Amino acid sequence: MDMLALMSVLIDQPFLALAPAALFFLAYAAYKSRWALAASLLWSFYCFYELAMRHRLLCSGECNIRIDLLVVYPALLVAVFARHSSAGWNPVFSTDCGRTGSQPSLG
């Protein structure tokens, strides 16, 4: 698949950006990770930003030339991969569920 065609999916269907937003919000709810919350908010913001661009609320006429996406798409990618590269966080194989410190004793 062509890279431009892949990127245009989110332009054509902005509501698809709510899928990663929901996944990151679920990760935030489970692990209380501020990175996950920030990523969720960023993806949600992008959805509404793209809808505003589609309805020409944020541009005055020529919305087809999207220089803004040179900043927006890398920011979304950083939101997805930044936390994974720092500290090796992996929600699937994490034994401490993202918490720090010791576990409370039962006795």
What does the model show?
The chain has 107 residues and is mainly alpha-helical. The protein has a domain at 13-85. It has helices spanning 3-12, 18-31, 34-54, 69-85. The radius of gyration is 18 Å and the shape is elongated. It starts with a helix and ends in a 22-residue tail after the last helix.
Q: Over all CA atoms, what is the radius of gyration?
A: 18 Å
Estimated share of beta-strand residues: under 5%
- Sum up the overall morphology in one term: elongated
Fraction of residues in helix? 55-70%
Amino- and carboxy-terminal Cα gap: 57 Å
DSSP E strands, number: 0
- Summed up, the helix count is 4
Considering the chains and any ligands shown, give keywords for the structure.
single chain, 107 residues, mainly alpha, 58% helix
Q: What would you say about this model in short?
A:
The protein is mainly α.
Task: Give me the secondary-structure topology.
Elements: H1 3-12, H2 18-31, H3 34-54, H4 69-85
